[in-house]
Structures
1.
Amino acid sequence: MSEAKYLEIARRIESLIDIGHYAVGSKLPTHRALADEFNTTPVTIAKAYKVLAENGRIESFVGRGSFVRDRSQLKQVIQSHFADNEWNFSILQPCYADHLESLHTQLKNSFDQLSNPGLYGYTEDTGFSAHREAGFAWMQKFGLRTGSAEQTLLTNGAQHALSTLIELYTKPGDRIALEAQTYPGILSIASFLGRQPVAVAMDEYGMLPESLNEVCREYQPAMVIIIPSHQNPTGATMSEDRRRTLASVIQRHPLWLVEDDIYGFLNESPVTPVTDLIPEKSFYISSLSKAISPGLRCGYIKAPQNQVSRLASFIRATVWLASPLMFEVASHLIMSGTAIEMANKQRDIARHRQEIARHALSPYTLSAQKTSFHIWLSLPGNWQADQFTLTAKERGLLVSSGSYFSVDLNQFSVDLNQFNTEPGQLNVEPRQNNAIRLSLMAIADEGSFREGLRELATLLKTGKSGYLQF
């Protein structure tokens, strides 16, 4: 039996999973039963199942069988390993080409200056005032105008900030309004905590206010989460008008806003956060993970004044406090101006890489800003997103399928096309949104980056007519 056949069978099974024939959590047929169906051998089916397990689509247990996994697993989207024979276009992180040596020097100097004994013990649950001041200064640099250092709380990165706010300000069974294509980390938190995601339609400027208004009337979500700048995965950045209209919708409904603005530093000039427009019911998140390093694990939440005590108490009850050692280093980088310089350098690299990518992939439809870390690439008709992702991996190209980011839009009982929107509306229905996300920053060497783009372009052009029919 040829190697190609078990790979085609794996793709066929994956397609059946995607269309719901095999639901998440359901048990797959035995090797022998599926072998009979596909007119092949159990050994071939076992090899196909192994491919699916390696790609995170199924999991197998001795004596129990194989089961469909939730496709929102972060491991599928963020493949953090870096092999010499692979091009990793899957993970959004700073480009370390010229960054790593400078960062190492700065961190070493900062750690050499850790002389405050208080850093090694417990401190107040909101963290040292100097660390909160640095965090607020960081957020102000990229557009935040409301609040204060006293309203700034420290978390172990933006993901911790998201999980904290979802757990504290919603309860199991509550609905959370999300952009129709969104960061899978949010979906994972919602799944683990028993919250129900509800999709809000998007266009090229991000979340549609009219769609959010409809979702609020129909589903009464307890929270709405947005990524207003360089949205992950579509790259959309909300205009000032869009932000104001969205704020007015949120103001009319009883729900919290969580504004995840970790890519705000990539804007070429500061943009007013939605939080500034409705500060009494909004939480604003920023971090150093994308601008400096994910290893710092320094996140910041600007909270409404009347929620500071409650949020601080919850953080204390769950993790006690975010590491003061890391925040001392982060504060030194921020207050010295080094962090801003590093962030600006990353923005410059992103701009350069966008130009390279747009040239290499010019025949295809790309969505991104000029300084985004990633692009959202619409696949040609001879490719399906999950099929392309699997085939690309076989060739050493790690990309993220658009299916990993989709929130179900089928809950709508109204025609979203009736709304008057700004030009350039994206097609966001998961069954039609046939795209992949490509990170432009994880491959440090520019020569290797260009080579990977050439391989991608070749694969896109080659295409396949579809799945092998059995």
Note: The CA atoms of residues 183 and 232 lie 6 Å apart.
2.
Amino acid sequence: MKETLDAPSVKAWDVQKIREDFPSLHQQVHGRPLVYLDNAATTQKPRRVIDALRHYYEHDNANVHRGLHALAERATAGFEAAREKVAALIHAPSSHELIFTRGTSESLNLLAYAYGSSFLTSGDEVILTEMEHHSNIVPWFLMRDMLGIRVRFWEMEEGGVLDLNRLNDLITPRTRLISMTHMSNVLGTRNPVEQVCALARDKNIRVIVDGAQSVPSMPVDVGALGCDFLAFSAHKMGGPTGMGALWGREEILKEMRPFMGGGEMIAHVSKEGATWAGLPHKFEAGTPHIAGAIGWGAAVDYIETIGMEAIHAYEQALTAYLLQQMSALEDVTLFGPTENRGPAVSFKLRGVHPFDLTQFLDQLGVAIRVGHHCAEPLMHRLGESATARASLYYYNTREEVDIFVDALRRARDFF
């Protein structure tokens, strides 16, 4: 994390101007200005997104794709334009490869079921990392129970990083799939996805990447990564909740069976059976979250006006400052690497239960997250039942970091 807040690319950053676009940041909690540091869970929304949602419901509210009246045509145009924007954000070769879902969790469940039931058989092996979110563990356990596949875990090293040599040792002739997080929601670790994909490709193994934490905070190019699938969410990048996407290689998606049945995903239905619509509609049964897609498109527009490279540089610099200030505190233990990482920082304060700490900070207007962060295998490896987590986004400030660190000092003295 060599970028600093004094670097030229960061000096030009006008964070106060950006904050003016986020209404929810300008409120008080328990009589104090809100310091929102729970961005790994969900981010606040810029006014452009809120306005896009309102405009759809006030002017274009209709179902998509089949209507011939003006509202339906406008809704469809807005919905598909959003797909184009989200696909372009990750440099997808075609927007037809981008499937709208309810979020990263649904995207990963879709893959486990549709890919698993199409290509995996009893005895096949799926490799997960030890730092996965439950959304990338539980669906594979369900497939294990349904299909008889084997789920194996790639253990991490001290410091919260992965060693490719361990992966090599795990791979067997029955390994069919590696499913892994790009960036840990607990440790902030940025995993070596490019190297994993290159290794897997040589062995004809497919790779699924959970991009829930990475796509909102850094440039992501699916071609450069070399993965076969990428799952991510709107709400972690300023978009609406209940909205996500799955990108997959067209040739694989075409061979996968549908995840759900219903309207929109069919070509024809008779009393004898059904045939499927083309991509992406084959995997989008029923009325989609139209407003959510349009709002997500507005969030992507907003990010593009700032620039993902600039967002990444600023977040890296601010995270480095946060780690520096927290490391100077007595009785604070930080989890995860200090380099090559994202802006989610898990920690514990000696002698203070994380739940007590979070409630204490809330009374000072500081919002952080506490718990196992839907990553219990990782927490077990760390030897913790719960940690506290502060997570930054591009609208956070150095002053907010100072307020947070001062609140930790006050908590330490109080308890």
Note: The two ends are 33 Å apart (CA to CA).
3.
Amino acid sequence: MKRYFRLLIVILFTCCPRTATAIDETESLDLLVTTLNSVQDVGVRNALLRGMLSGLEGRRNVTAPAGWNELSRKLSDSEDKNIQELSAELSQIFGDREATAQALAMLTDATADKNAQRRSLRVLLTHQNEDASSLLESLLDDPALQLDAIRGYAMVENASAPAVLLGRYERWNAELKRAVIETLATRKRYAQALLAAVEQKTVSRDDIPAHVARSLKQLLGDPFVRVFGEVRPIAQDRQKLLARYKRIATPQKIADASASRGRAVFTKTCAACHVLYGEGGKIGPDLTGSNRANLDYILLNSVDPSYDVPAGYRMVTIVTVDGRVVSGVIAEEDETRIVLKTVEQPRLVIAKENIEKRKTSPKSMMPDGQLEKMQRQELFDLIKYLRTTDQVEMAK
């Protein structure tokens, strides 16, 4: 009976780690190490290691279970690359300095696999590794890692971040510029530098998306409003805006529009948060089965996305003990962590012990003013695409 009980603990921790919180963590991890030592099947080992990582996701400096050091050395010699990488990530969670040093070395290895470098960077920054943060500037020179490096500055506060990011801002494309603005809006010191750049016109006011402006106003208060202007809720003018858009979006204008061009508009403005025809982000509702044929439905949800927000899609803002500010919708939550879905990251894990403040807003994560930023033809094309019943080719 005891043997089966021990096996149940292993299964709970690896397959349903949130369910296993009532079970003593130390005993569970010790049992997993014992099990990993006893099994030789590569698939089983992969599953157990992934289960351990899932159960410890977002954690750092966890005490290593008995026998882990010996096991990790054995796993590092595995012929399976996934087992090597999973074992190395766990060793970092367990505070293994050698594993951390190897991960840092990978970041500076020009021959390393880019996906492996991204994983190493993510793990190191999740563990608040300042050496990794100091390497971010050099990673900005690698086109394959630029976006990850920009967003990495949000994870660990770095005094040089505003100067480094704003110094390169002008020569970056729209995607990287948006990542810079979203990153600088996550910490007060960063945000103050961004506001100064807006005031000096080195960053255009128009480059700041509505949802970022809302965050900056909350973070900086009146100084932001004095420079940027008042961030007025569009919901107050909902009826006026709805009437305006219904007046210009005539049946003939929509009939003459291009769904293919509309797909390109959707990809640029909506796909980061919404899935349509199986493609896109999963922060907001999947639009595939929504009432997209109804023009009133499309306009109401675009003009005033916060009009009726389901609880699961309300924006949650978290301030961490080290001053990081993040906003998103809750994907998962248990006694030890919160998993957010944000515009920048589909899965951001924050340990509750690292949270200083948490606030739930009645507002949607979908920013106000999306339609106002579009040219009229873009609006017509987007509506045409949203009202399709099958996927179309995207205009180039």
Note: The radius of gyration is 24 Å.
